Amino acid sequence: MKNNNRMTRINDEILKEVAQILRGELKDPRVGVMTSVLRVDTTPDLKYCKVYVSVLGNDEEKQGVMKGLKNATGFIRRLLAQRVNLRNTPELIFKLDDSVEYSIRMSKLIDEISKGSANSTGDDENE
């Protein structure tokens, strides 16, 4: 239980710092304002860290952001090592997370269905 709490704190700290680095320090034009860090999963040995990012835009923009993040991995890791006091700074692996866009699309579909059922029940009452 103690180790799980420790990993949660480490993940939260890494998420906060990587988000700040992406927002303010990274000068790559491919990584835009619409890029946000959703979640961080660090292995217990602190060797690797998966950083899940969300990018709003089309597929071409998403691929550009992922290439920009891959190119800037060393820079981000170096800044992370300066800011977070860990014995080993984990190797960052950026993963694209489409869950936000998926939830927005599902919400729109549910709204359309509910409007459609409301219209069909409204028509039945008028007859």
Automatic annotation (TrEMBL):
GO terms for cellular component: cytosol. PROSITE patterns: RBFA. It is found in: Cytoplasm. Keywords: Cytoplasm, Ribosome biogenesis. Monomer. Binds 30S ribosomal subunits, but not 50S ribosomal subunits or 70S ribosomes. Belongs to the RbfA family. This is Ribosome-binding factor A. It comes from Candidatus Fimicola merdigallinarum. The lineage of its organism: Bacteria, Bacillati, Bacillota, Clostridia, Lachnospirales.
